[in-house]
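We modelled the chain as a single entity of 543 amino acids. Its sequence is:
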Amino acid sequence: MKKKIVSIALLTCMVVTLLAGCGNNGGTSTETESSATSSPEASAASYKKAGGAGEVVVGIAADPENMGPWSGMSQGRIAVLYSVYEYILTRVGGVAYGVLAKDWKQVDDKTYQVELYDYIHDTAGNELTASDIVFSFETAIATNNYSKLQPVESVKEIDDYKVEFVFSKKLEMGEFENIMLECAIVTQAAYEASPDQMATNPVGTTAYAVTSYVPGSSLVLEDTGNYWQTDEYLVHGTSLHNIPKITFTVITEASQMTVALQTNSIDVSNGIPDTDVPKFSEGGEYADGNSVSRVYDNLTYNIEYNMSSDSVFENDLNLRLAIAYAIDKEGLNQGAFNGNGKAVKDFANANYPDYVKEWDNQDYYDYNLDKAKQYMEASDYDGSTLRIMYISSSVMDTVAQMVQAYLGQIGIQAELSGYDSMMFQSAQYDSASYDILLKNNGSTDYIVNQWKLCWDARDFQSVTGGTANFVQDDKLQTLMETALSINTYGEDSLKAFHDYLVEKCYGYGLVQGTINIVHSNYLTDVALDSRKQIIPGACTFAE
């Protein structure tokens, strides 16, 4: 088995080393709790393996369905994406590294050039050149499946290994990298040779080729032994290939995922229910040979007030603050995540590399019932029932019910409106639909890009007249654009936006949850991508 441990050291944020005793491999263990043994050697002494020699079996909760490079995103697709396709760049700890790109540069405000390695080939042996980049981007844009690609005005081949991107605007913080990370790259030759646009037999440039796909059941990939990037120092997290064979097994019932681990049918999963996790933790029935790691999720559960002109909140800061101080964020953590999550101190969370550490020590609407009642007395609240809207799920239902109860402590009656995700998408921009919005948002790069999901009025102006929750505040918008601008992005602009949002209390973060990674000790390190999905090829294994 060929291990590229040197490259693991680069995964300080994007790929998280989960076993606390494996920190010498360079992963970040600060976000993690683990019941694993204290060293890889000890773990290796006791493990159970689902697959044969040189194979890892990963339990995933949904079928990938369409594995074409530019089909719409789904839960199952996200779970297998990096094992099948590569991208121009990857990003680790806020730093961009080239994957297919040897180098890149900004030519002017709207123009960038990317130079490719001149020896890239896909798993079918087709050479990949600049024309394939043009083909991939133009085809992906035409699907309308990827909103992050909207700023791309043109993609042009300069020579065989150099591509020019022209954008419709000056890009903001992280936006160029996001665009390069959004479009899976394939060769035009392989795509046009596919009878179903690679829906069932994708051909990418990773080290792994798909050897079997049974819809609704399993996806098998095997290392070709002919990966194009032979310099291991240039192989970054999503491209590592430490195991010869990867099998993804589709298990849609959470209880059956637990059974699969109990019976050694799979080696690892991030889909074990909270209630079953103790079975695999220290002292549990199935702890022998297994380990549990908990990783903080990128998603933050937030409150957004309806700030439209017909809302009770528009001109009543006291009412907004009363509710903020009435909600016990640590209580939400205990009730929704069994105490394994974390109360947050910003509209986002501390996972992001640009999170300002001093916010941890600030009063961020810390639970204070007396203060909440004082603000309530000073408010203009008229006793009307407030509507709390959210996407219904087991966790969000619990969060909503607890928020409802906390509001009751200060005399506010609230009714819950749980939506399915499709209906919610339109209802959230209808000011008549809610008073308080519960959401969970996250980004894969910088904290400013989570803020942008609500507070950048440029993205919502035509629909709401302001921000996502109808705020019309020129100062907030100026601070948002300053924090997003490449020229002014930095701790000062981040703190200025954070402080002003705290002052105005248009919305705020509540809590972040956890993702449970349960695995056999056959895996000595479990690697995750920026979406907290398992990257099987980047994991390390007991001999």
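As a brief sanity check on the tokenised model: Residues 1-44 have pLDDT under 50 and may be disordered. Residues 394-408 form the longest helix (15 residues).
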